[in-house]
Amino acid sequence: MAMTAANGTSVSIQDLSLNFGSVSVLQTLNLDVAEGEFIVLLGPSGCGKSTLLNCIAGLLDISEGRIFIKGKNVTWEEPKDRGIGMVFQSYALYPQMTVEKNLSFGLRVAGVPKDEIAKRIARAAEILQIEPLLQRKPAALSGGQRQRVAIGRALVRDVDVFLFDEPLSNLDAKLRAELRVEIKLLHRNLQNTMIYVTHDQIEAMTLADRIAVMKGGVIQQLDAPQTIYNRPVNRFVAGFLGSPAMNFLEGELEAGPTFKTDGVSVPLERYAFDGTERPTGACVLGIRPEHIAFGDAAKSMPFSASGSVEIVEPMGSDTLVWTKLGGRNLSFRVEAERTLRSGDPVQFGFDPARASLFDAATGNRL
Amino acid sequence: MADQAVSLPAGAGAVGREALGPSGPKPRHVFSRRNIFLYGTLIVMAVYYLLPLYVMVVTSLKGMPEIRLGNIFAPPLEITFEPWVKAWATACTGLNCDGLSRGFWNSVRITVPSVLLSIAIASVNGYALANWRFKGADTFFVILIVGAFIPYQVMIYPIVIILREIGLYGSLSGLVIVHSIFGMPILTLLFRNYFASMPEELFRAARVDGAGFWGIFLRIMAPMSLPIFVVAIILQVTGIWNDFLFGVVYTRPDTYPMTVQLNNIVNSVQGVKEYNVNMAATILTGLVPLIVYFISGKLFVRGIAAGAVKG
After folding, report:
1. What is the full DSSP assignment across A125-193?
2. Tens digit of pLDDT for each residue in B206-254?
């Protein structure tokens, strides 16, 4: 699922560093993107994900390292010579040109023959269903239409690699969900390599073949969405992905192995440790709200406890229930039909195999 | 709406709904205190600025005997356009007795190339400074800004020497060069700030599309910048047209611009003071900037606002 690696590498970033004066934005970063792969760069604002994308596009000069696209060293190539198309968050359509002129601008600059331009525009307009809009100016388009045109501008260039810089962030929630599906369909139909920057974890989870979670200019984890979700390599990744967020319980890891915190002990026989050695000491146990069973189902779990409901957050599709475990807040999901009230006694439990253990000091997965 | 009203149960409910809405026309407060203050202030300011213009127009349409009566606010009893004709065609300035017409054409020949040249260079400067961050760009910009604050008088004599050395002293092209250089700091600042306020992603998109330095400027940036070009044109036309100092220093009587000629007409000490001719000459000289303002006033305001607020 992750890599259609048989086709080879499309984009290869080797030991890339970027400094602005004395500020280091990206540090010896390595990333290989397979042909036809959809990679999402995910991270909070300021993590360097957009910067990395601009480096790939050639819009920022890198300090060290090399960038290969389709096996060609493009480190010092101009953006237009890299075989990339880029879609920007603010659409960046040329306001004084019609949609058609916007689409053809790059081709006209490159001196492509007129009939070829017309052919490519017709194809892009058909794929994106913007044929009726071709003679309009960007100001007369809605946000979703503008973003379609922006994607079309990358499409007509007939490039190998598409770069998306938070393309859906300026749209409202409904439109975002629609265009998300369209981008996924577009990728399925075109089979191009796509690198997509976002801070939205839903976009990342739904679109990506692999997600690169970034923080402080460093890729924390690069893996398939399910792996990142279920086996985060550190506490940052665990906390960044998932809504509602993962529960974290601080405590001690003891031989056995058992996790202990404030009179609660969780048996960890079923937990798959990363290494072969069994560490002990201060650690953090993370468990996602949807992995916590409730009521009768909880009793059959390797670990179960009881408590009382603190507050209830109905979300429509399901309900988030807050309780306490060992004096710490813990949330779990129940079906929306359950009517729980504050103060109700609850029985809950989970399978430690689905939990994540992190070193308290380093935050790394144990 | 009608359907809804019908479907409603008749009686108290419907009446209640009607009573909720506003009844009768919306009251208007023409003579509210706010309006009186607002329009009062505006009228006073307008009269304050228009009164001198009125006096000038009225005086320029009177004959000298009527002016000697002293009623400067009175409208002319006998309207005559002779002072206008004299100011334009026959008034004497020094040796030449062909009125302001010579100065007018000189001013045109100074203003048009100066405006075009200075805006062409400054817009590219501003674009380069805003979008192509070259090494030392900040230093260059600071020097340019400092340049805007150096008093002109300091540089008059050095420039006289420079123009003399390159053989342009006293010629119109020399003055054009001087005007273009002195317009550079403020215009570059104007264009740089405008281009810097444009979305950076537009510039990046154009680079991905393969446009180069000139391609992006001519095909993307400049067509989007009409308001700031209008602002620059107005600033330069009025500034250069109204300039007196450079005109009197760097040209000869043959090539005097209109302002210098106007001064020579108005301040001539021989003979009778022809107030009507002076007034007509002054209005004629001020007409060009005035027309520019009237034509492009709206664009001017838009450009100033666009430069100030980040779009």
Report:
1. HHHHT-GGGTTS-GGGS-HHHHHHHHHHHHHTTT-SEEEEESTTTTS-HHHHHHHHHHHHHHHHHH--E
2. 999 999 999 999 999 998 888 889 889 988 999 999 999 999 999 888 8
Query: Which ipTM score applies to this complex?
Result: 0.84
Kind of pairing between the strands at A84-87 and A9-20: unpaired
Mean pLDDT within A28-46:
92
Q: Could you report the per-residue pLDDT of B120-175, keeping only the tens digit for each?
A: 999 999 999 999 888 888 898 888 888 888 888 888 999 999 999 999 888 899 99
- Alpha carbon of B189: minimum distance to chain A alpha carbons (Å): 24
Entry pTM: 0.80
Residues B209, A57: C-beta atoms closer than 8 Å: no
Interface contact B215-A92, CB threshold 8 A = no
A78 touches chain B (CB under 8 A): yes
Is A25 an interface residue toward B (CB < 8 Å)?
no
> Which residues are CB-neighbours of B244 under 8 A, at least 6 positions away?
B259, B260, B263
* CATH of region A244-359: 2.40.50.140
Residue ranges of domains in chain B, CATH in brackets: 33-80 (no CATH), 106-269+286-308 (1.10.3720.10)
Mutate to test the interface with A, among B134, B203, B208 (most CBs of A within 10 A): B208
Which of A105, A160, A161, A162 to substitute to test the interface with B, most B CBs within 10 Å? A105
Domain ranges of chain A: 5-231, 244-359
Classify domain A5-231 by CATH number.
Answer: 3.40.50.300
